[in-house]
From TrEMBL:
<dbReference type="InterPro" id="IPR000672">
    <property type="entry name" value="THF_DH/CycHdrlase"/>
</dbReference>
<keyword id="KW-0521">NADP</keyword>
<comment type="pathway">
    <text>One-carbon metabolism; tetrahydrofolate interconversion.</text>
</comment>
<feature type="domain" description="Tetrahydrofolate dehydrogenase/cyclohydrolase catalytic">
    <location>
        <begin position="6"/>
        <end position="122"/>
    </location>
</feature>
<keyword id="KW-0554">One-carbon metabolism</keyword>
<feature type="domain" description="Tetrahydrofolate dehydrogenase/cyclohydrolase NAD(P)-binding">
    <location>
        <begin position="155"/>
        <end position="285"/>
    </location>
</feature>
<keyword id="KW-0486">Methionine biosynthesis</keyword>
<keyword id="KW-0511">Multifunctional enzyme</keyword>
<dbReference type="GO" id="GO:0006164">
    <property type="term" value="P:purine nucleotide biosynthetic process"/>
</dbReference>
<keyword id="KW-0560">Oxidoreductase</keyword>
<dbReference type="InterPro" id="IPR036291">
    <property type="entry name" value="NAD(P)-bd_dom_sf"/>
</dbReference>
<dbReference type="Pfam" id="PF00763">
    <property type="entry name" value="THF_DHG_CYH"/>
</dbReference>
<keyword id="KW-0028">Amino-acid biosynthesis</keyword>
<keyword id="KW-0658">Purine biosynthesis</keyword>
<dbReference type="GO" id="GO:0004488">
    <property type="term" value="F:methylenetetrahydrofolate dehydrogenase (NADP+) activity"/>
</dbReference>
<comment type="function">
    <text>Catalyzes the oxidation of 5,10-methylenetetrahydrofolate to 5,10-methenyltetrahydrofolate and then the hydrolysis of 5,10-methenyltetrahydrofolate to 10-formyltetrahydrofolate.</text>
</comment>
<dbReference type="GO" id="GO:0005829">
    <property type="term" value="C:cytosol"/>
</dbReference>
């Protein structure tokens, strides 16, 4: 019998726990504040921002949406981001993707890299100190699946397929699962990355795509193509983690072949929002930790 993961319920519980940490922060006189920049009228972006604002309201985090028309100039947005970087009352800055088609991938990257790394709570910069919320959510759910599925999946290394491996989210997921000591994989080939991670890119036109998809024990779907994944594309007992938005990559009829499904809506999405806010709180907690330097064997404390 397939297990349907309830991300909405879990995220609600985790937000309740996060509230305790936020109250502790507020007692020091700090009001956690996140600024999200939205460009254009993308429908999915509007949905995501409403969900983020709703969750922020629940935990009493100040969530500000700066909305701009699609024809705004890149340098104007970069200047805004630089001002937000300098604003001590702002603890996190994020760009709501996707951007309008008028923005190139280079322009998108310029915006992301304009965000100070310590305020990049969405984990989009290459040198961000934060793991992207969606990656944290997928990691949690995949680990949960291994604990729940009965009979258990085969002993690691499992084969993890990432559909949409060249997209913004897909690249981060591939990089994460290619890390050494990943509990799902536990196998890395020096100099080659991880042969247990199957990169499935729709743009390549690979005729073996369907066969390689069927090799996956865990299939993470992040193509953004609604209903792309059909039952004849996956093996029986597969773990399906749908990251597609806003409608989901996995056709609902595919569920009957799976042992575990994180659906859209109600799966990865709510948990991703939680991890975004958790990153925000952690950024404040880290910034308030005492700093020390050692001078001639003497440890000096910098308040």
């Amino acid at each position: 019998m397939v297990h349907i993961f309830d991300g909405k319920r879990l995220a609600s519980e985790k937000l309740d726990e996060l509230t305790v940490r936020i109250l502790r922060v507020k007692k020091t006189g700090i009001i956690p504040k996140l600024v999200a920049i939205r460009v254009g009228e993308n429908k999915a972006s509007g949905i995501f921002l409403r969900e983020k604002k709703k969750a922020a309201r629940k935990v009493e985090v100040e969530f500000v949406i700066r909305k701009f028309k699609k024809d705004i100039k890149l340098n104007e947005l970069i200047e805004l981001i630089r001002k937000l970087n300098k604003n001590a009352s702002v603890h996190g800055v994020m760009i709501q993707l996707p951007l309008p088609a008028s923005f190139s991938s280079e322009g998108r990257d310029d915006l992301i890299n304009a965000i100070a790394s310590e305020k990049d709570i969405d984990g989009m910069r290459e040198d961000s100190p934060f793991t992207a919320p969606v990656v944290q959510a997928v990691n949690y759910v995949s680990s949960e699946a291994l604990n729940i599925v009965r009979p258990p999946l085969k002993v690691a290394p499992l084969k993890v397929g990432v559909v949409g491996a060249r997209g913004v989210v897909g690249r981060k997921l591939v990089r994460f699962f290619n890390r050494r000591n990943n509990p799902l994989i536990q196998e890395t080939i020096p100099g080659k990355g991880n042969e247990s991670v199957i990169e499935l890119d729709l743009e390549v036109g690979d005729r073996s795509l369907k066969q390689r998809m069927q090799d996956a024990d865990v299939l993470i779907c992040a193509s953004g193509v609604p209903g792309l994944i059909k039952g004849n594309m996956v093996k029986k007992g597969v773990v399906l983690i749908d990251v597609g938005s806003p409608e989901g990559d996995v056709d609902k009829s595919t569920y009957e072949k799976a042992s575990f499904v994180s659906p859209v809506p109600g799966g990865i999405g709510p948990l991703t929002v939680y991890y975004l806010l958790e990153n925000l709180v952690r950024s404040i907690e880290v910034s308030r930790k005492p700093k020390y330097t050692k001078v001639r064997g003497v440890i000096l404390h910098h308040p």
